[in-house]
Amino acid sequence: MDGDARGGLLFETQDGQRTVNADATVLALGGASWPRLGSDGAWADILAAKGIAVTPIKPANSGFTVAWSNIFRDRFEGQPLKGVDLTIGSHTMRGEAIVTRSGIEGGAIYALSAELREAVLANGTAMLSVALRPDVAGDELVARLSAPKGKQSFSNFLRKAAQLSPVGIGLLQEAAVASGRSLAALPPAELAELINAVPIKVSGVAPIARAISSAGGIRFDELDAHFMLRRLPGVFAAGEMLDWEAPTGGYLLQASFATGVAAGKGVLNWLNSQDG
């Protein structure tokens, strides 16, 4: 879709180009995530060429890239980290994260995706901290980890004493290797501290083509109170075209529906004002 020189709407159809002249138009063209389904964000350049300010579109509710070791990646790809606390800066989220071949994703990651994304874009990397046993106090963990190990392997000891999953233990091994230390050689106090503050270096944002949604879009100061574009009278916008982002769980749909209703009411208001 584009506009012709007379202000009509120009559509590419199976029968060639078709021009439609409308009394009012609502643009609800989506963001730029999952472009193979049609929402590729191509409208951004069209509107920008008409002088409308569009905040650059970026991935939202997305996964992130992490340079896992080959051993960790091959063994734990697809495994969930359940009931963990994820922290970046002052933001913490309790939930689940999933190890992917190229990094990490999942509900708790999506909830922190805005903070992670902006940190990566600003600094090139971001540090994510994972608490594997967030409900266990530090002194209790130290006491459990100070118990005799006997003849069991260190992994079995961690599994029983700290009730850690295999992927959680693998994550601890990743952190120990990255710091040049042996996990089994850590004193109980340091090990307890690491269990609830495992550092993960995030090195990039997963492609927008795989993001659940997108951030950025038409700036709100380009719209009037009825969601009409100030520079294009009679043209309204709604949904993920607008410059906002929200977590998953129905919020994206709710905001898209709500702005659609507001734009529809704006159309009625506009048409009534033109009739008068």
UniProtKB/TrEMBL annotation:
Keyword Transcription attached: no
Matching Pfam families: HI0933_like (PF03486), HI0933_like_1st (PF22780)
Cofactor requirement: FAD
Domain called RsdA/BaiN/AoA(So)-like Rossmann fold-like: residue spans: 10-265
All copies of domain RsdA/BaiN/AoA(So)-like insert, residue ranges: 58-213
Protein keywords: FAD, Flavoprotein
Protein name: Putative flavoprotein (TIGR03862 family)
Origin species: Bradyrhizobium elkanii
The UniProt record lists the keyword Flavoprotein: yes
Coiled-coil regions, chain positions: none
